[in-house]
Design goal:
This protein is an all-alpha fold. Helices cover 72% and strands 0% of the residues. The protein is built from seven helices and no strands. The model has no long low-confidence stretch (mean pLDDT 96).
Length: 98
């Protein structure tokens, strides 16, 4: 979790986490899910989206793409889709109604 929290802006996948943790991918996912109830990549995505939410409020002048890139979500379409799925609003709608 510490690695994810510090490096969320970088490319992170199961192989990278496995190298960092020293465990196999399946074991690391099993242990992480046991303690936190979700897999590491789901945690990473949720963490990035929470950070994006904060950035949308802190930087109203930033483009949506800038916000996505700042949290490691480079694909703008996927970022908007995931944001909407998680929070029920697109990033622009969130910014507008907050």
């Amino acid at each position: 979790m510490t690695y994810i929290n510090k490096n969320y802006t970088q490319k992170i996948d199961n192989q990278i986490l496995s190298k960092y943790s020293g465990f196999s991918i399946s074991y690391q996912n099993k242990i992480f899910k046991h303690y936190y109830g979700i897999t590491p990549l789901i945690y990473l995505n949720d963490f990035r989206l929470r950070k994006a939410k904060s950035l949308l409020l802190m930087h109203p002048d930033w483009q949506i793409q800038q916000v996505g890139e700042a949290v490691g979500l480079i694909d703008i379409s996927r970022f908007i889709q995931q944001f909407r799925k998680t929070f029920g609003l697109t990033p622009n709608q969130f910014r507008k109604y907050r």
